[in-house]
Write a structure and sequence with these properties.
It contains 21 helices and 16 strands. By secondary structure, the chain is an alpha/beta fold. The strands form 3 sheets. An 8-stranded parallel β-barrel has the order 3-4-5-6-7-8-9-10, surrounded by 7 helices. Strands 11, 12, 13, 14, 15 and 16 form a 6-stranded antiparallel beta sheet that branches.
Length: about 625
């Protein structure tokens, strides 16, 4: 017979010390998909008094991608503050602190002066790491405290008693130094809850009482094994795990946090279940970007929080599109078109019957007023009923045309596209709406000018990859003598970057002072440009002299080699910032594309060095 349990007291629990690790082979056979067991113990929901969100974008999220730059971290930290930090809904964000760049990120985010999210640390359970926390004046840190026998026996090679003593000792030291420990109970959904986890939690709560400081616990569903089902048994039941800690180990709900992974597609529902059964915070990352399958999506928690509480002012969902644009343009992360809330097509429908309903009233098929709540109007659905105005709207909206770039229904190409659409319906009896890809193909066919050409992409790539290295060379003081020292710099430069076909330095009058040729095959041709050759009328010379800025020309065919090249140039300045010359390079497109990945990494490293100066 099922029972509903609501316990309010706690009892002393004794740690069990098995000779062999408890691996729960009946639940985790490894050679088969894991099993879910039920014991018919039902718990009534009892939400935490305050449900909050924490962030691990810069810790767990960063373990799934190349490291963020300092500027990228600062921008995303600003997003966190704007999304829910202003109201205190997003309370904290955790950081690594091992490298110089980690510490620069922390310093930059602290300098923002935000009350929320607070900047917290993450460390291993070793005293040397804790010293870093103390030296950087953190008042709270997460500590890796693995609790399953998979970790204790098989990874750490310790007994449960040894692991407990190590974790408690670290917590004691943190409290002694005035640091709130946040113990990360790693792999809790494969752990012995009563035989190890709760006894450890009780010891930590005793430390809290003795010190008068909180000791927080993060429940880490490391492998995504947690399940939200009523009646599910430990250790996989999210409900039972949370309530065991609050009701039996005496951990206050506001000191408890859930950290999930999406290995079994349950990361969001498990996090929300933790909230509903007394866990004060759910840990998350922007767009769920994290190790392996990722973490709980922060934006999903924002929407779910508003749904559960009715507190519309708790989060600013209108900037999620701005965050998504940053991820795609700055981080080069492709968000799936159907990704909820921010995907290109998340609130679009292609089914004819649905499109008809949207045309009559968007509320029939739109989840909520996405225009006002997300800044995302329902995309117009193209059918034979759309009309020229609708085609023009689609083009402007989807091709990013604004201001004078916008096209009207009277544009000849809009008429051609409309006629092509009508022909599809008239000639084939089509009943479905046109997909984004079909419309894009029509626009490219009749309005190719609104698409960036391959040459445009090449120019953008050349600029992004070459700017840093060229500007760095222009700062070399040896260039200022315009003699042998400058020529040696150019020779060394083209040896390091052989995709540069020709490198040259002029003085402020445009007179060629020295140059370097990459490929000996073309040496005789380039030597036709002797020292003193007048480049003063060339665009690559005039523009940096006029603006002092980097200048990138369009792709063209080299007169000397017949290769497709891009010329990039920048001003050379003296100690008083006076322009004394211009440095230019002709870049072979083919060679550049072959080296693009290595150059991208170098450009990112250069940006990091600039951030750290």
């Amino acid at each position: 017979m099922s029972t509903i349990i609501h316990q309010t007291g706690s009892r002393t629990l004794t740690m069990q010390e098995p000779e062999k690790p408890q691996l729960y082979r009946d639940l985790f056979p490894y050679t088969s998909i894991c099993r879910t067991s039920f014991d018919e113990v039902l718990l009534a929901p009892r939400p935490a008094e305050q449900m909050r969100i924490t962030d691990t974008t810069f810790r767990d999220g960063q373990q799934a991608r190349p490291p963020y730059t300092v500027k990228q971290v600062a921008k995303m930290f600003d997003f966190l503050h704007r999304l829910g930090g202003k109201t205190g809904l997003i309370t904290a964000s955790e950081f690594f602190l091992y490298s110089a760049k980690d510490r620069k990120c922390i310093e930059t985010c602290r300098a923002r002066g935000y009350r929320f999210p607070r900047v917290t640390a993450w460390i291993r359970a070793v005293k040397e790491d804790l010293k870093l926390v103390r030296d950087m004046e953190f008042d709270e840190t997460g500590m890796l405290t693995s609790v399953s026998d998979y970790h204790i026996f098989l990874k750490l090679g310790k007994t449960r008693q040894q692991a407990m003593d190590m974790y408690v000792g670290m917590a004691e030291q943190a409290l002694e130094w005035g640091i709130i420990p946040r113990c990360h109970f790693e792999d809790v959904t494969r752990a012995d809850i009563y035989g190890f986890c709760l006894p450890l939690a009780q010891r930590l709560m005793e430390l809290s009482r003795q010190s008068g400081m909180p000791v927080k616990i993060r429940l880490c569903d490391t492998m995504g094994y947690g399940v939200p089902y009523p009646g599910a048994a430990l250790p996989r039941s999210v409900q039972r795990v949370v309530r065991a800690f609050t009701d039996e180990a005496g951990v206050p709900g506001q000191w408890l946090e859930w950290h999930g992974h999406n290995d079994f597609h349950k990361v969001l529902v498990n996090g929300v279940t933790a909230w509903l059964y007394g866990c004060g915070a759910v840990n998350s990352t922007l767009f769920g970007f994290g190790e392996r399958t990722g973490n709980t999506p922060l934006e999903a928690l924002l929407v779910e929080y508003i749904s559960l509480t009715g507190d519309d002012a708790a989060a600013d969902t209108t900037i999620l599109g701005e965050v998504a644009e940053f991820f795609e343009k700055e981080l080069h992360y492709r968000i799936p078109h159907n990704y909820p809330f921010v995907g290109r097509d998340f609130n679009a429908t292609s089914a004819g019957v649905h499109a008809d309903g949207l045309a009559k009233n968007e509320e029939i098929y739109n989840i909520f007023d996405t225009n006002s709540l997300l800044g995302r109007p329902v995309p117009i659905i193209i059918t034979d009923k759309t009309g020229r105005a609708g085609v023009a709207y689609w083009i402007n909206n989807n091709m990013g045309l604004t201001g004078a770039q916008c096209v009207s229904k009277k544009h000849p190409a809009v008429g051609q596209i409309y006629e092509a659409i009508m022909a599809m319906y008239d000639e084939t009896g089509r009943t479905t709406s046109l997909s984004h890809e079909e419309m894009e193909a029509l626009v490219q066919r009749f309005m190719p000018e609104v698409f960036a050409s391959e040459f445009d992409h090449m120019k953008e790539l050349a600029g992004a990859l070459s700017a840093k290295i060229l500007v760095r060379l222009s700062r070399n003081k040896k260039l200022l003598d315009f003699e042998s020292g400058a020529c040696a710099c150019l020779d060394a430069f083209v040896r390091e970057y052989p995709f540069i076909q020709y490198c040259y330095l002029t003085d402020a009058t445009g007179s060629l002072r020295c140059s370097a040729i990459t490929d000996p095959t073309y040496r005789e041709i380039y030597e036709a440009l002797p020292l003193g050759y007048d480049f003063s009328q060339r665009e690559w010379f005039r523009m940096p002299m006029k603006s002092g800025k980097l200048h990138i020309m369009d792709v063209y065919q080299s007169h000397f080699t017949g290769k497709l090249i891009i010329t990039v140039s920048c001003a050379v300045t003296d100690a008083k910032d006076n322009i004394v010359g211009v440095l230019g390079v002709d870049i072979q497109i083919e060679q550049l594309l072959r080296k693009s990945r290595a150059l991208q990494q170098e450009a990112e490293a250069e940006a990091e060095n600039s951030d750290n100066e």
